[in-house]
Amino acid sequence: MDHLSCQPTSSVKVERRLVEKNRRNQMKILYSKLNSLLPNYNPKEPIPLPEQVDEAINYIKSMEAKVKVAQEKKESLQQGIRKRSRDCFTKSAANSAAKSPQLEIHEIGSSLEVVLTCGLDDQFIFYEIIRMLNEENIDVRSANYSLAGDSVLHVLHAEIPQAFLQFGASKVSERLKRFVNGSCSDVELQPELWDFEINTYDLWGF
């Protein structure tokens, strides 16, 4: 009876020894894989297990420090890029605003003075203003321009017919302002109409 009761205990001990042996073998395999990932790994020169663990810990810590430095550098570069982007956007917006067409219209009795400031690429606006005045039977007497960096200052003098003095001048002024401000609903660009004559002299040959 005593002999039979000892058999299960012996079997359990053998099983535990096998489990422990498999665990140690598995740990050796894992340590070996870990060691193979280290930069100084040399399969022909095995090192003791404690040294493998210490080397892996030191390597992981050094990599963490490098990752931290790299992240800080990345964040610094991204901040610089965002700042340059904001500066470029602000500068571009300022340049765009500075070059946006600006129109001033002055009415003195029957005389009409039109002052247009625009970019070099917006020359057509001034030609179109002259065409529109011609359509309204307003006599353009003189026109001149001057350059200031990337902008052009146009000055035009015209004579308003007596019949238009009460209401016509305001109508024309509003039409010119709508056109320069971007509302071309009542204007179709027709380059062939730009070549009409001006009483005082021809416009420059841009």
TrEMBL record:
<feature type="domain" description="BHLH">
    <location>
        <begin position="11"/>
        <end position="63"/>
    </location>
</feature>
<dbReference type="InterPro" id="IPR036638">
    <property type="entry name" value="HLH_DNA-bd_sf"/>
</dbReference>
<keyword id="KW-0539">Nucleus</keyword>
<feature type="coiled-coil region">
    <location>
        <begin position="53"/>
        <end position="80"/>
    </location>
</feature>
<protein>
    <recommendedName>
        <fullName>BHLH domain-containing protein</fullName>
    </recommendedName>
</protein>
<dbReference type="Pfam" id="PF00010">
    <property type="entry name" value="HLH"/>
</dbReference>
<dbReference type="InterPro" id="IPR011598">
    <property type="entry name" value="bHLH_dom"/>
</dbReference>
<dbReference type="GO" id="GO:0090575">
    <property type="term" value="C:RNA polymerase II transcription regulator complex"/>
</dbReference>
<dbReference type="GO" id="GO:0046983">
    <property type="term" value="F:protein dimerization activity"/>
</dbReference>
<keyword id="KW-0804">Transcription</keyword>
<dbReference type="GO" id="GO:0000981">
    <property type="term" value="F:DNA-binding transcription factor activity, RNA polymerase II-specific"/>
</dbReference>
<keyword id="KW-0175">Coiled coil</keyword>
<keyword id="KW-0805">Transcription regulation</keyword>
<dbReference type="InterPro" id="IPR015660">
    <property type="entry name" value="MASH1/Ascl1a-like"/>
</dbReference>
<dbReference type="GO" id="GO:0000977">
    <property type="term" value="F:RNA polymerase II transcription regulatory region sequence-specific DNA binding"/>
</dbReference>
